[in-house]
Write a structure and sequence with these properties.
This protein has about 160 residues and is an all-alpha fold. Helices cover about 90% and strands about 0% of the residues. The mean pLDDT is about 90.
């Protein structure tokens, strides 16, 4: 085989390699995006589980509080303190107020946790979009390089690239 034919074959092979590299970069970017989307969905599931768990925890807390409140009423009654007026009523009201504060704190902390998980899922999705964009950009660069390699090789093979 003569020199120009080898130059053409070399240029075509180089271009084909660049096209393959571009396709691979694009596929890798899409795959990485899919992984990030999956991770974001896992985080959203975790958010739902935590939300449910907060509800369960508050129900348990209220049940425990009711039991404690009953024990407190009984202890006050046994010691001769009335629970509908005065000190007995004040004790029960303070306990109820503290329980309400604890429940409000639990809801607040749960909401903060949910917002954090929402932000985490959003960040994962944005990272996935960035991966897909990078893959497309790498593919475009590879396609341009393939075209350039092909034109350069054909130019050299045709004799136009030779010095006089």
């Amino acid at each position: 085989m003569a020199g120009p034919e080898l130059m053409v074959i070399s240029a075509v092979m180089s271009a084909a390699g660049q096209v393959a590299a571009g396709s691979a970069a694009k596929s890798a970017g899409r795959y990485r995006q899919q992984v990030q989307e999956r991770n974001a969905k896992v985080v959203e599931q975790e958010k739902l589980v935590r939300h449910h768990q907060t509800g369960v925890d508050i129900v348990r807390f209220r049940e425990q509080f009711a039991a404690t409140e009953g024990t407190t009423r009984m202890a006050l009654s046994k010691s001769g303190v009335r629970t509908d007026t005065g000190t007995g009523l004040r004790i029960l009201m303070e306990n109820a107020q503290k329980a309400d504060e604890d429940i409000a704190t639990a809801f607040y902390n749960a909401e903060l946790g949910q917002r954090t998980l929402d932000e985490k899922a959003t960040q994962m999705r944005l990272q996935g979009k960035l991966y897909a964009y990078e893959g497309r950009a790498q593919a475009s660069a590879s396609y341009l390089k393939a075209g350039s390699s092909l034109i350069s090789g054909l130019n050299q093979a045709s004799g136009y690239g030779k010095s006089p």
